[in-house]
Amino acid sequence: MVEVKNLTKRYGLNMALKDVSFKVEEGTIVGFLGPNGAGKSTTMNIITGYLSATSGEVTVSGKNILDEPNEVKKLIGYLPEQPPLYLDMTVREYLNFMYDLKKVKQPRGKHIKEICEITKIEDVYNRLIGNLSKGYRQRVGIAQALLGNPPVLILDEPTVGLDPKQIIEIRNLITNLGRNHTVILSSHILSEIQAVCQRILVINHGQIVADGATDTLAHDLSSDHRLVLRVEAPEREAVHAIRELEHVTEVQSFGEKEPGIFELSVEADPNADVRKPLFALLARKGWPMMSLKNMDLTLEDLFLQLTSTDNVYQEEKEQEQQAAASVQIGPEGMVEVSEPSAEEVTEEKEEKGEEEA
Question: Torsion angle of alpha carbons 265, 306, 172, 215, nearest 10°?
Fold first, then answer.
């Protein structure tokens, strides 16, 4: 298990991480999601011992990274965003070099062979790393992370720069590794996180802004749980019948979208799933369902909502403009708060009187 408590990291006046806390249970694949510069790589570098934290603590399987750094590093396999490869070495030379550097205790030949089979790099074992494709280099980087069979794998942007075929191959590899390892996968590619991870952590401006299961996070954070239904049925009768279903709170018709086919908005209690009783009703009435769409947030919508700062900046700008409008520079540079004139007060009273009348 990996546990991060109140992690804070400063670079001078810049706060890279602010009071970050989370736990990763054993045997899970967790996606670390966030825009560029959000603090993903900084967090990972602190967990792996490459960086020190300003405050807070990290424990891996009960061992503290500050108290037992060497023991913790033995428990972690790390693939940075830029894999630490020596391009003038062959894959064989590199893996043997890393085997010695990490002081791995497993039998050398058998262990390296098993890792090559897992990562599917046997056919390039004797080739120069500098002559390999980006996809194979990523595989070699993952192979070095697996040396010593660490229980925790931390992969920072493992599919960046790969073509679609290579991305699918690396995803499948990570999924297979998740059966025997705890995996923390950092990325800002939403489809990658959704395809591989069981849980998502979203970080923005150095703070965790969302944490939940991949399948339910968007639903849990969405305030709109409507279903949009297209059905071939008499409009008024369909609206009335659906409205009578248990937990349904509102049904609205958007009109005829195709000949004889109407689009309906179905709202229900937040914690109720009305899809089964809705389907049973339509089947009983003999009304064909042409489509049913859930209006919950998508993962992309959720990501944009959690990481977009446009609204915040706009509100701050409006507040600054309002404050500036009420302040004037007086004589000798003194700041004076402007008071409304007698005419303005009279006009305001007259307007209020007219509104009350």
Answer: -40
DSSP letter assigned to residue 297: P
Q: How far apart are CA 133 and CA 61, in angstroms?
A: 36
DSSP string, 158-216: TTTT--HHHHHHHHHHHHHHTTTSEEEEEES-HHHHHHH-SEEEEEETTEEEEEEETTT
pLDDT in tens, 153-208: 999 888 887 888 888 888 888 998 888 899 999 887 787 888 889 899 999 999 99
Cβ count within 10 A of residue 155: 27
Domains of the chain, first to last: 2-220 (3.40.50.300), 223-294 (3.30.70.1340)
Closest CA to 308 of 168, 223, 211, 204: 204
- pTM here is 0.70
Residue 195: phi and psi, rounded to 5, are: -75, -25
Task: Please give the pLDDT value at position 83.
Answer: 86
Cα separation, 119 vs 131, in Å, equals 18
Yes or no: say if 34 and 217 are a contact pair by the CB < 8 Å rule. no
Which of 123-127, 233-237, 296-300 has the weakest average pLDDT? 296-300
* Helices 235-243/275-285 angle, 10° precision: 140
Question: Read out DSSP for 325-343?
Answer: HTEEE-GGG-EEEPPPPHH
